Amino acid sequence: MVLDCSCTTLTPEIVCLSDMRWNCVHPRLKHILSRCTSQRRVFFIEEVIFTNQLMGRLDISQDKTGLVVVIPSLPKQLSDEDINLDLQRLISAFFRENSIDNYIFWYCTPKAIAFTRNLQPQAVIYDCMDELPTIKSIPSPLQEYETEIFSLADLVFIAEQSTQAMQAHHHPNIYVFPSGGDGDRIWTTMMKLIDFAITTRHQEGTNNSHQATLSYKPPNKVVNTDLVFDYLIVGAGFSGSVIAERLASQCGKRVLVVDKRNHIGGNAYDHYDNSGILIHKYGPHIFHTNSRQVFEYLSQFTQWRPYQHRVLSSVDGQLLPIPINLDTINKLYGMNLNSFEVEEFFKCITEPKEYIRTSEDVIVSQVGEELYQKFFQGYACKKWGLDPSQLDKSVVSRVSTRTNRDHRYFTDTYQAMPLHGYTQMFEKMLNHPNIKVMLNTDYREIEQVIPWREMVYTGTIDQFFDYRYGKLPYRSIKFQHETHNIPVFQPAPVIHYPNEHLYSRVTEFKYLTGQEHNKTSIVYEFPQAEGDPYYPIPLPDHKKVYQKYKALADHTRGVYFVGRLANYQYLNMDECVGQALLVYQKIVSTPVTAFHD
Length: 597
Ligand SMILES: Cc1cc2nc3c(=O)[nH]c(=O)nc-3n(C[C@H](O)[C@H](O)[C@H](O)COP(=O)(O)OP(=O)(O)OC[C@H]3O[C@@H](n4cnc5c(N)ncnc54)[C@H](O)[C@@H]3O)c2cc1C
Description:
alpha/beta; Rossmann fold; about 20% strand; 9-stranded mixed beta sheet; 3 domains; elongated; protoporphyrinogen ix oxidase, domain 3; 18 helices
């Protein structure tokens, strides 16, 4: 029988094999499998029934959720061997006729292994949540089937009450689910674990084949499942990835990196767009540092393309170099000053202030009111949603001006872009057998079911503490990416728009990456209040709230708070790497203080 199921996607289908009738299965399994039908085809193969008919057959029906129930029936008085051969033949034909070729096996009974060995699932789950196998009590050959299924399974699901018994089994991925509890949450977690198991199989190159997993040898020692991950790392950006890499490669720790986004790299993530141009999803990321240690550390994972960043600012209808230099002043005022003369010019326009309290005071005292208004005020208003007169002096501690014609935006010792992009660099960092990466996952979905010892947390600190003292404000950005059918869009990598338009700047990526292409991709940045958290808003009240969260963090044993979101602090990429390397040193020199299960 060929089924008419519209729900066919690339998501592997689920084939559950049980020795129960679908109508009699535990309500929890029923809930979980029924819910899966919204995403994929789900087949439930029941225990065989024996009849007086001469030939074996499968009776197929669908319940109201679309789940397909398969009931095998066979002639009476067959030997065990013939039963398994007939079932294998019937089920293989059923798979062929219904194009079931991308699927996972969800075994609720070890017996089913005897007639499904020939098939090639994407992953194998052994679910003994509702039926506790106790090896001593089960007869042969069931015992052999059970041993076999443990060696095949990517995941084993057990119920709370069976924890002790199951710890005697040799399996590294046993997950305990409470027997009661929130069915939706269990469903979400199980789906994450399944996705993870499939990804892990691919990562480990098990070739998707049953045969390949058959060769898996369970470890000789009893595995204490509580020790599976030494570190749960929340966030796959610079902060999380550096610490994961160090812990795995230098200390042999088992690390699980979880990110709620669908990619690694955090805000530094880059990818090829539809036209094949390498772009930075979250706006331009220019690498620059004075730290030799940071540069050498990252150089293990990437080659570099030397790159000096340049920025122009759109002022009074002209595009002028920023930071302000000799050319900026000459072009803006139609003059022809030399370096000495422009130094005198700066001296004349500065407006010394008795008290420097705000960012406005800092800028005006260094470049005067006119240049402040033309270049800085509007830009800061867009960026922060606040006038510089409302921002603390620490936000702009110094305005860089030059009396020469140096057009570089940064003057750091090391200025370069990863030759093949940031994402490829992150892939190399995380490509270690001790590191597993789980994407599309908020850590709260899995923290209770995947065992870990200590956590490195790089998400927002207020979220970690359930916003106990309120939400910490961030400035966000809407990125509008475009591709144009021309080789060059603008005369500089980045152009600032302090005074006109709603966007604050436009970036053309090919300048940054050096890529050659007959089209070009750009991004407009529209700063806004709502959206992903990008820039902590530096106001004293916010700092006070952060300090309260920090006090909680300081008393949270076994969790390290790292990076720009967990420290509510704007950090450049190199600063994140430097900070992460320091935290790694702290982790290795601190005895493990907490244990989570
Ligand atoms: C627009 C913009 C431009 C920038 N340009 C530059 C530049 O040119 N040069 C420079 O040096 N720096 C730049 N930066 C700064 C740079 O992005 C940061 O220094 C760096 O990305 C911070 O790394 P991180 O790992 O601390 O945080 P992130 O990169 O933000 O990584 C944190 C990760 O944690 C994940 N996460 C959060 N909560 C959870 C959760 N509950 N569960 C699971 N995962 C979670 C997030 O999805 C995220 O991927 C720029 C930043 C922005 C916003």
